[in-house]
Design brief:
By secondary structure, the protein is mainly beta. It has helices at residues 99-107, 129-135; strands at 8-11, 24-31, 34-39, 62-64, 68-77, 87-90, 93-95, 116-126, 139-142. A hairpin with a 2-residue loop joins strand 2 (24-31) and strand 3.
């Protein structure tokens, strides 16, 4: 199977009535150890400033990234020149980095929310698990980009 890092996958009808019904996931890492990614089309019901530790931030949209580590925030961005320390997902998309700087840029309107997306939790698959789910038809590769 091709490496899915940087690709979007979409849940098929096989995942209807599950927590992944109608989800689109950006795969941020895919290797022999497994895969990780973030649900990009499910808004989280609260904004960043509604979380106690970020009450001074702007009302930035959050996304329900997945069922794993839902007590943690993660982010992806397309501005490595301004947010350092991120890990490349593709040539123009990065995972993580200086979170304080990302929030500052968004809070002060210096960057668009399309350039930084913040997630609560992530999706994870053990070695071979995503490949098996793809083979059984639970997910399809979605054309386009984030």
């Amino acid at each position: 199977m091709e490496n899915l890092q940087g690709k979007l996958i979409e849940a098929t009808a096989l995942l209807d009535s599950s927590e992944f019904e109608k989800t689109v996931v950006l795969i941020t890492e895919h290797n022999s150890n497994g895969a990780t990614g973030f649900v990009i089309n499910k808004p989280f019901p609260r904004k960043l400033n509604e979380l106690e530790e970020f009450n001074q931030a702007a009302a930035i949209d959050l996304y329900a990234g997945g069922p794993v580590a839902t007590e943690h925030l993660f982010f992806i961005h397309s501005i490595p020149d301004l947010i350092t320390g991120g890990k490349a997902i593709t040539d123009d998309l990065f995972l993580g980095g200086d979170f304080k700087k990302a929030v500052e840029l968004l809070t002060h309107g210096k960057r668009s929310p399309t350039q930084v997306k913040i997630f609560i939790g992530y999706c994870g698959w053990d070695a071979g698990e995503l490949e098996t789910e793809m083979e059984e038809g639970s997910w399809t590769i979605k054309s386009g980009s984030l």
